[in-house]
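Could you help me review a protein record that somebody else here produced? Here is the record exactly as it was handed to me:
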Amino acid sequence: MVFYREIRENERSENVIGIGHRAFDQAIRQALHSPGALACVRGLKNPGVIFQIYDEVTEHSGTLQAFTVGVIVDIDPKQIRLLTDGELLDLLNEISSGSRSEPPDVTQSEIESAKSEATAYLQNRVKQLGLPFVAPRLRVHVILWPVSGKVR
Protein backbone atom coordinates (compact mmCIF):
# COMPACT_ATOMS: atom_id res chain seq x y z
CA MET A 1 0.00 0.00 0.00
CA VAL A 2 1.30 3.44 -0.91
CA PHE A 3 0.14 6.64 0.78
CA TYR A 4 0.10 10.00 -0.97
CA ARG A 5 -0.22 13.41 0.66
CA GLU A 6 -2.28 14.97 -2.09
CA ILE A 7 -5.28 14.09 -4.22
CA ARG A 8 -4.75 14.15 -7.96
CA GLU A 9 -7.37 15.58 -10.27
CA ASN A 10 -8.63 12.16 -11.36
CA GLU A 11 -8.83 10.72 -7.81
CA ARG A 12 -11.80 10.74 -5.49
CA SER A 13 -11.37 11.98 -1.93
CA GLU A 14 -12.96 8.85 -0.44
CA ASN A 15 -9.99 6.86 -1.77
CA VAL A 16 -7.60 8.85 0.44
CA ILE A 17 -6.94 7.58 3.95
CA GLY A 18 -5.13 9.09 6.89
CA ILE A 19 -4.96 9.21 10.68
CA GLY A 20 -8.06 7.60 12.15
CA HIS A 21 -8.55 5.11 9.32
CA ARG A 22 -8.02 1.56 10.62
CA ALA A 23 -5.63 0.51 7.84
CA PHE A 24 -3.55 3.67 8.20
CA ASP A 25 -3.40 3.48 11.99
CA GLN A 26 -2.36 -0.19 11.81
CA ALA A 27 0.39 0.68 9.30
CA ILE A 28 1.66 3.38 11.66
CA ARG A 29 1.67 0.94 14.61
CA GLN A 30 3.60 -1.62 12.58
CA ALA A 31 6.10 0.98 11.37
CA LEU A 32 6.75 2.16 14.92
CA HIS A 33 7.67 -1.39 15.95
CA SER A 34 9.83 -2.06 12.89
CA PRO A 35 13.60 -1.99 13.43
CA GLY A 36 14.08 0.25 10.40
CA ALA A 37 12.35 1.67 7.37
CA LEU A 38 12.93 1.16 3.67
CA ALA A 39 12.84 4.16 1.34
CA CYS A 40 12.96 3.60 -2.41
CA VAL A 41 14.94 6.37 -4.09
CA ARG A 42 15.03 6.85 -7.85
CA GLY A 43 18.46 7.85 -9.10
CA LEU A 44 20.36 6.48 -6.12
CA LYS A 45 23.36 4.52 -7.39
CA ASN A 46 23.82 2.10 -4.49
CA PRO A 47 21.92 1.07 -1.37
CA GLY A 48 22.60 3.07 1.74
CA VAL A 49 21.92 2.46 5.40
CA ILE A 50 21.51 5.38 7.76
CA PHE A 51 22.36 4.56 11.36
CA GLN A 52 21.87 6.32 14.63
CA ILE A 53 24.72 5.71 17.05
CA TYR A 54 23.88 6.21 20.70
CA ASP A 55 25.51 5.49 24.05
CA GLU A 56 24.06 2.51 25.88
CA VAL A 57 25.51 3.90 29.13
CA THR A 58 23.31 6.92 29.84
CA GLU A 59 24.86 8.00 33.15
CA HIS A 60 27.93 9.35 31.31
CA SER A 61 25.94 11.24 28.72
CA GLY A 62 27.25 14.62 27.68
CA THR A 63 25.86 17.06 25.21
CA LEU A 64 26.13 14.58 22.32
CA GLN A 65 23.51 11.88 22.90
CA ALA A 66 23.21 10.47 19.38
CA PHE A 67 25.13 10.64 16.13
CA THR A 68 23.80 9.90 12.65
CA VAL A 69 25.98 8.31 10.01
CA GLY A 70 25.46 6.76 6.57
CA VAL A 71 27.03 3.70 4.99
CA ILE A 72 26.88 3.10 1.23
CA VAL A 73 26.98 -0.52 0.05
CA ASP A 74 28.17 -1.00 -3.54
CA ILE A 75 26.74 -4.43 -4.32
CA ASP A 76 28.66 -5.36 -7.48
CA PRO A 77 32.28 -4.97 -6.38
CA LYS A 78 31.30 -5.44 -2.70
CA GLN A 79 32.71 -2.09 -1.65
CA ILE A 80 31.39 -0.28 1.38
CA ARG A 81 32.12 3.26 2.45
CA LEU A 82 31.26 5.48 5.36
CA LEU A 83 29.69 8.84 4.58
CA THR A 84 30.84 11.87 6.50
CA ASP A 85 28.05 13.97 7.96
CA GLY A 86 28.49 16.46 5.12
CA GLU A 87 28.31 13.72 2.48
CA LEU A 88 25.19 12.30 4.13
CA LEU A 89 23.52 15.71 4.08
CA ASP A 90 24.46 16.16 0.43
CA LEU A 91 22.97 12.77 -0.41
CA LEU A 92 19.74 13.50 1.45
CA ASN A 93 19.45 16.92 -0.19
CA GLU A 94 19.75 15.31 -3.63
CA ILE A 95 16.75 13.08 -3.03
CA SER A 96 13.73 14.53 -4.74
CA SER A 97 10.67 14.60 -2.51
CA GLY A 98 8.23 15.20 -5.33
CA SER A 99 8.81 12.14 -7.49
CA ARG A 100 7.27 8.72 -7.05
CA SER A 101 8.44 5.43 -8.47
CA GLU A 102 7.38 1.83 -8.54
CA PRO A 103 8.53 -0.44 -5.69
CA PRO A 104 11.96 -1.96 -6.33
CA ASP A 105 12.49 -5.39 -7.79
CA VAL A 106 14.49 -6.63 -4.81
CA THR A 107 14.23 -9.55 -2.42
CA GLN A 108 14.13 -9.38 1.35
CA SER A 109 17.41 -11.31 1.47
CA GLU A 110 19.15 -8.69 -0.72
CA ILE A 111 17.99 -5.94 1.64
CA GLU A 112 19.03 -7.94 4.70
CA SER A 113 22.42 -8.65 3.12
CA ALA A 114 23.09 -4.96 2.45
CA LYS A 115 21.94 -4.09 5.98
CA SER A 116 24.16 -6.79 7.53
CA GLU A 117 27.21 -5.75 5.53
CA ALA A 118 26.72 -2.08 6.42
CA THR A 119 26.22 -2.95 10.10
CA ALA A 120 29.37 -5.10 10.27
CA TYR A 121 31.36 -2.43 8.45
CA LEU A 122 30.23 0.30 10.84
CA GLN A 123 30.72 -1.84 13.96
CA ASN A 124 34.36 -2.31 12.96
CA ARG A 125 34.84 1.45 12.53
CA VAL A 126 32.64 3.06 15.18
CA LYS A 127 35.56 3.68 17.58
CA GLN A 128 37.44 5.47 14.79
CA LEU A 129 34.68 8.10 14.73
CA GLY A 130 35.94 9.43 18.06
CA LEU A 131 32.49 9.73 19.62
CA PRO A 132 32.31 10.43 23.37
CA PHE A 133 30.33 7.26 24.06
CA VAL A 134 31.27 4.63 26.66
CA ALA A 135 29.29 1.82 25.00
CA PRO A 136 28.27 2.88 21.48
CA ARG A 137 25.32 1.01 19.97
CA LEU A 138 23.98 1.09 16.43
CA ARG A 139 20.36 1.43 15.41
CA VAL A 140 19.26 1.26 11.77
CA HIS A 141 17.26 4.37 11.07
CA VAL A 142 16.44 3.86 7.39
CA ILE A 143 17.60 1.82 4.43
CA LEU A 144 17.76 3.73 1.15
CA TRP A 145 17.28 1.44 -1.84
CA PRO A 146 17.85 2.50 -5.45
CA VAL A 147 15.04 2.13 -7.96
CA SER A 148 14.82 3.05 -11.60
CA GLY A 149 11.09 2.53 -11.97
CA LYS A 150 8.80 4.74 -13.97
CA VAL A 151 7.39 7.88 -12.40
CA ARG A 152 3.84 7.56 -11.16
Observations:
- The longest strand covers residues 136-147.
- Residues 108-125 form the longest helix (18 residues).
